[in-house]
Amino acid sequence: MFSSIIISKFKTTPTPFYYYDVEVLKQTLSKLKAESDKYGFIVHYALKANANNKILNIIKSFAIGADCVSGNEVKKAVECKFKPEHIVFAGVGKNDAEINYALDHSIFCFNCESLQELEVINTLAVTKNKIAHIALRINPNVNANTHKYITTGLEENKFGINLWELDAVVDALNGFKNLKLIGLHFHIGSQITDLNSFKSLCLRVNEIQTWFINHKINIENINVGGGLGVDYYEPDTNRIPDFATYFKLFHDFLELRPNQKVHFELGRAITAQCGTLISKVLYIKKGVNTNFAILDAGMTELMRPALYQAYHKIENLSNQQLTTNNQQLKYDVVGPICESSDCFGKAVNLPETFRGDIIALRTAGAYGEVMSSAYNLRDRAKAIYSDEI
Ligand SMILES: *Cc1c(COP(=O)(O)O)cnc(C)c1O
Predict the structure, then answer these.
(1) Ligand 1, atom nearest to 227 Cα
(2) With a 6 A CB cut-off, is 187 part of the ligand 1 pocket?
(3) What is the pTM of this model?
(4) What is the pLDDT of residues 220-237, one digit of tens each?
(5) What domains can you pick out in the chain, each with its CATH number?
(6) Would you say 355 and 284 are in contact if contact means Cβ atoms under 8 Å apart?
(7) Ligand 1 near 268 CB (within 6 A)
(8) Closest Cα partner for 299 from 347, 348, 337, 273?
(9) pLDDT tens, 31-80?
């Protein structure tokens, strides 16, 4: 839902661009904070969902940490003044320069994904005479019931240390004198809407914890990752994810040891609903069985539909009237890029649509602008913010 003032601003701004509703972001963060604080849970924001400075500064102002998956994200978090003791660093392929940078800044924790990675971090920490805090990212073999490209916690996925490797990893840790094990880390996937997946994760974490207790290893931190999904179909009615149920579930099902802290790494749930990709219709073209609405935005601005068949709600903001016989027409809404996967939606119901109409692609604040590319030598889309209009 956009006010007429905002729509007229859209009409006079060169398209395509990202529009961020700062109020929605702040309301989301307030609710997130209130619900996680009830249980003393610690939340880190996954920078990879959206790393715009303005967005990061707002998130940081809610006393939320940073979850990074590359050296440049760690650098960005440091530059945006997230406290080093609130920065975690995950990723299956951390290179030496990235590890060294994070060591230099004494971040809270490396979430380590393999035995060889532990060895490399230890060696680099020895050279710097530092102790690296590490958590073991364990592959819990729990199905997230989401798209297969964003499922990360199954044994067939590249992420994390598998359960059968734990003995070897724990043995090796005894020899890595510059590593300090401070936690266990899990992340089973993204856009998870079936909360049973999180319940399964909790139960698996409990089993794994028992293994560590039996091995007399004390674990201070349990990091359960991110993945809470958002409603791409009803962005106006379900603007803020159900954080209350989500956090309560972990409170109810995780068996914690005394003084153990629980960490979360949410990305999408924080920024998805505050962002919209705004574009214009360039052409309407009749196909064999369909009409094409060809937009000036494409997979270069918003890659999710092409990458994993993701759904984004598409709205015509110029013409919200139905046709005379009260019908919507069907359009294949596509971009200008020379790829057939450059399609935002097939047989989308829209009121009759014309060249020049403003089209909104909703729920694009996470994994939208950050994934944009210059393919076809396209210009990068700009961002505008609701409080700067
Ligand atoms: C991507 C990612 C997240 C965030 O996932 P969302 O679905 O955006 O909440 C958290 N932790 C790790 C390790 C990730 O790779």
Answers:
(1) 7
(2) yes
(3) 0.96
(4) 999 999 999 999 999 999
(5) 4-16+273-388 (2.40.37.10), 22-271 (3.20.20.10)
(6) yes
(7) yes
(8) 337
(9) 999 999 999 999 999 999 999 999 999 999 999 999 999 999 999 999 99
